[in-house]
Specification:
Pfam families: HTH_3. This is Helix-turn-helix transcriptional regulator. InterPro entries: Cro/C1-type_HTH, Lambda_DNA-bd_dom_sf, RmlC-like_jellyroll, RmlC_Cupin_sf, TransReg_Diox_bact_type. By secondary structure, the chain is an alpha+beta fold. It folds into 2 domains: 69 residues, 434 Repressor (Amino-terminal Domain) (Orthogonal Bundle); 77 residues, Jelly Rolls (Sandwich). Helix content is 27%, strand content 30%. The radius of gyration is 19 Å and the shape is elongated.
Length: 184
């Protein structure tokens, strides 16, 4: 069963993208190879879409899969380990959970960071348009905007603006993280 918030996000995205193309629901259903009833339910937020259905719709619309499921960041976005929203497959023990979509033309650097408690690592603002993604691997750390850092634990994901002052403050020995610095 798909999370109600995710179903609503998918509903709004499918309808928005379909209307952007100027297509009727019947036309999109035909192009995607899904039933019009299934598409109507999905657009009403009542459907329970599978990965296969969403891939078919995104392919027909000529958009990345992520456009249908990504909430997009309005500010710092925190994803706690175990709280991701899974989209199940139809016939296999498989699900997809989107953490962050790569916008077209984005540039990214990926870092493995190791830190110990003590002095926090404070970063001056990077180039305008920089966004940082952090997945904490081991330990714990306060991470994010200097005035609004969030305590992360293994598996937690956080995204925040890297073009504003930010901090990485290890709270336990052997802390490590993967940081992706993206310039949009």
């Amino acid at each position: 069963m798909t999370d109600p918030e995710l179903r609503q996000r998918i509903s709004e995205a499918v309808r928005r993208e379909r209307l952007h193309h100027g297509w009727s629901a019947a036309e999109l259903a035909r192009r995607a190879g899904v039933s019009k009833g299934n598409l109507s339910q999905l657009e009403a937020g009542a459907g329970n879409p599978t990965v296969e259905t969403l891939w078919a719709l995104s392919d027909a619309l000529g958009i990345p899969f992520s456009t249908l499921v990504d909430p997009g960041p309005d500010g710092p976005v925190l994803v706690r380990a175990g709280s991701v929203q899974d989209v199940p497959a139809a016939g296999a023990n498989y699900s997809a959970s989107l953490l962050s979509a790569c916008p077209p033309g984005a540039r990214r650097d990926i870092y493995l960071v190791r830190a110990e408690p003590g002095e926090a690592h404070r970063s001056a603002p990077h180039q305008p348009g920089t966004v940082e993604h952090v997945v904490l691997v081991t330990g714990s750390a306060d991470v994010g905007p200097e005035e609004a850092a969030v305590r992360l634990h293994p598996g937690d994901y956080l995204v925040y603006r890297g073009d504003a002052p930010h901090v990485f403050d290890a709270q336990s020995p052997g802390t490590s993280a993967v940081i992706v610095s993206e310039l949009r």
